[in-house]
């Protein structure tokens, strides 16, 4: 199974300023989050999407306000591409005032303006299928992000089965980064994701590009078809996670990590248009530093009183 994408044959200019701002906001947010974790300012754990930021950035303009987005444990980029609210997200992760869910959901359990996330692998697919059933005929769709490791969960196949049988507007976005926590995909996934989708008659589209505009142009008619027909679609992105699984637990070899870094969009866009990229990069870094300073100075959220049964 091929799990690495070849570098593009030539450098293309970076996307629009708006797309660059979204990409760089996510990149600097995730880096800041890792630093905060190292300082002991973030409880529990944290999963960053470093290297995969371009996927939700490319997809977001193809989604409508009435669509539902279901995310997973690696969902900060999904959220920030959909809702550019770094203050509320960081406050949520740190349990500070101003949090988008009152500070009780953290980074893995968000519910905000038709955006939902879960840390349970595969849990989002049947829920997204149920929501898609309600959306059928409205023109809206349910978009669910999963990883290649999630294809070991039975819920994925139950959801695909019902989505095709009921002809539901369901978009399944697979971020195939080649490793499920610490297990290489080649050691835990037989066959291909495309063949598994085909077993249910579900359409499958494989993306190896990391170019935002190229991805968006290729997906636009396919996403439109999900709404218009309607019918489910699995879009598989061959991508790379350049950061650890969570915090510092990276089991890959230095050579594997280096190969992932060589495919990173950041360096390629910086080289293609240094002046414009550098200006927006500094702008978004300053924004994230401002967000971090303000949120860390806020009071902690007071936890709600424990539930008590009435006599």
CATH level-four homologous superfamily name of the domain at 52-73 and 118-181 and 188-239: Thiamin diphosphate (ThDP)-binding fold, Pyr/PP domains
Query: In sequence order, what are the helices and strands, one letter per element?
Result: HHEHHEEHEHEEEHEHEHHH
Number of DSSP-assigned strands: 9
CATH class label of the domain at 52-73 and 118-181 and 188-239: Alpha Beta
Pairing-aware structural class of the strands and helices?
alpha/beta
**Unreliable parts:** 1-11
Gyration radius from CA atoms, angstroms: 19 Å
CATH architecture of the domain at 52-73 and 118-181 and 188-239: 3-Layer(aba) Sandwich
N-C termini distance:
60 Å
Mean pLDDT: 89
Q: Shape from CA axes?
A: globular
What is the strand content?
A: 5-15%
Can you count the helices?
A: 11
Q: What name does CATH use for the topology of the domain at 52-73 and 118-181 and 188-239?
A: Rossmann fold
Major sheet: 7 strands, mixed
InterPro entries: DH_E1, PDH_E1_Alpha_Subunit, THDP-binding
Domain Dehydrogenase E1 component: 24-271
Protein name: Thiamine pyrophosphate-dependent dehydrogenase E1 component subunit alpha
Cofactor: thiamine diphosphate
């Amino acid at each position: 199974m091929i799990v690495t994408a070849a570098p593009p044959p030539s450098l293309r200019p970076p996307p629009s300023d708006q797309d660059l701002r979204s990409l760089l906001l996510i990149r600097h947010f995730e880096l800041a989050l890792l630093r905060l974790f190292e300082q002991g300012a973030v409880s529990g754990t944290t999963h960053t999407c470093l290297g995969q930021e371009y996927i939700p950035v490319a997809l977001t303009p193809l989604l409508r306000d009435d669509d539902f987005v279901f995310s997973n444990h690696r969902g900060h980029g999904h959220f920030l591409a959909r809702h550019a609210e770094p203050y509320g997200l960081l406050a949520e992760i740190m349990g500070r005032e101003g949090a988008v869910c009152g500070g009780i959901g953290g980074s893995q359990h968000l519910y905000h303006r038709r955006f939902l996330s879960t840390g349970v692998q595969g849990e989002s697919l049947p829920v997204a299928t149920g929501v898609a059933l309600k959306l059928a005929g409205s023109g809206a769709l349910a978009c669910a992000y999963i990883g290649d490791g999630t294809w070991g969960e039975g819920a994925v196949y139950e959801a695909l089965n019902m989505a095709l049988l009921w002809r539901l507007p369901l978009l399944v976005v697979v971020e195939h980064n080649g490793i499920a926590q610490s297990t290489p995909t080649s050691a835990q996934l037989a066959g291909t994701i495309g063949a598994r989708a085909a077993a249910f008659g579900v359409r499958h589209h494989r993306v190896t590009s990391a170019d935002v505009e190229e991805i968006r142009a290729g997906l636009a008619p396919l996403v439109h078809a999900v709404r218009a027909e309607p019918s489910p679609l699995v879009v598989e992105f061959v991508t790379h996670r350049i950061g650890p699984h969570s915090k510092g637990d990276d089991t890959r070899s230095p050579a594997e990590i280096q190969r992932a870094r060589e495919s990173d969009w950041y360096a390629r866009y910086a080289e293609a248009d240094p002046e414009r990229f550098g200006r927006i990069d500094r702008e978004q870094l300053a924004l994230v530093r401002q967000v971090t300073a303000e949120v860390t100075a806020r009071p902690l959220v007071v936890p709600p009183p424990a539930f008590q049964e009435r006599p």
